[in-house]
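notes to self, project folder thing:

trying the whole complex as one job this time. last attempt i did each chain seperately and stitching them together was a nightmare. two parts in total, labels are on each line so i dont mix them up again. if this works i'll redo the older ones the same way
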Amino acid sequence: MTASALPMPRRSNSAVAQWVHRRLVDGVSALGARAAVELGTNAGRLAQRVRGRPRPEDVADVFRGHIALQSIDPERAAREISGFAYRNRALSAVARRYGVSAVKRLIEPGCLAGLAPLGAGRGPAILVTWHLGPGCGISAAFDRLGIESLAVVRHPLAALDGCGAYVLAGGGEAERAAALWRAVRYLKDGGLVLIAADGLAGDRTRPVEFLGRRILLARGPFVLARLSGAPLIPIVASWTSDRQIRVEQGSALDVGVPPSNGEAFEAAAARATASWMERRVLQSPRELRPHTIRWLQTAPRA
Amino acid sequence: VLVLSVLAARWRLEITGQPADVDLRITLRPRGVVAAMPRDRRAPDRIVPAARVAEPGVGVRELIAHRVAGTDGHAALADDVPLGADGLGLDSVGVVELLLDCETAFGVRLPPDLAEAGRLTVGRLVGLVGHAIGGHGEPRSAVS
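result (full assembly):
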């Protein structure tokens, strides 16, 4: 059932606001990818001005954690973070409505050459990503290149129509075991597994340093690397200045500890991933998502 | 010597973590207490000798006893004991490590949707390994 077919709730202000928001998203997604991106960006900036969220003082608090971010104006950064968040949400709504292929035209053609080797049967790899930028851009780029992968997601909503196979890892211990086993088997058969390191489901790693904070990452990608022996390849999607999606992959992370070392390997792999992602965030800090800002604020300073 | 022998018979010294690890833990645990932690680091194919591969019921239980400290091998593990938190106490990573142990020890390939089709118990794992070896055990659909 689409949001427009739902009756308007009468319970509380937040329920009404949520209903209005769903109607808006539903309406925006009908416009198509490019228009949704434009409208979403402006709506996000406007929403930040009206609601004051994310708060500039929260952004400043997180940006104080790294010397390269301290000179950024937090007022402007808060507006841009909100603009990017709404833009990503609008794009996801389009992908959910029409399938991930509707987003394909926004992929920057120049980045596809760098991703092509992934589809050339290069062997198993764990594509470790971060909740940064337009996540559905990765699925769209893979769709365009015909790259098959298995995504490990927490919620079915994260798995878009046409994004390929996925497993849910957001339930209890039994569901996580099922997802982990399927991903290990997929890797052992030479496949690519896409998984976020900053996911909130399941066990945590030991603390790693990220933007001057000590954070705990999801243990999943590093357990997968240890059990399968597959390399960890970082990958993220971001926006270009002309509102195209650029998908960038790094080279396989040098963990420096053999997988047979168990927890020491997982800790080293988590550090290497956080370090790569920190370098990537420093290039476009305004693409940090509002929930990541809140998450970082709750983490102790390093 | 007598005192030490009595202590060794009733208590078990468990060391977890790596020598260079800051979280190295040394635990003195009474024997018979089930706890999900690796007992030793032998390769699975060394735990289940080739002669035992013909008996998946015995071999799988040996692998479980190796991975779950405190289980007394074959007799203590009934078929309906779940592998997870409500049974042997293995977490999701422990269950997957056990499945990989079975693949290595028996030289088989277990199906990818193994853990999705219902609760994984000792008996179900034995049946699946037997089926994968060929001829032994029940097919997956016939096992609860």
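what i see at first glance: Chain A has ten helices and eight strands.
need to look closer tmrw
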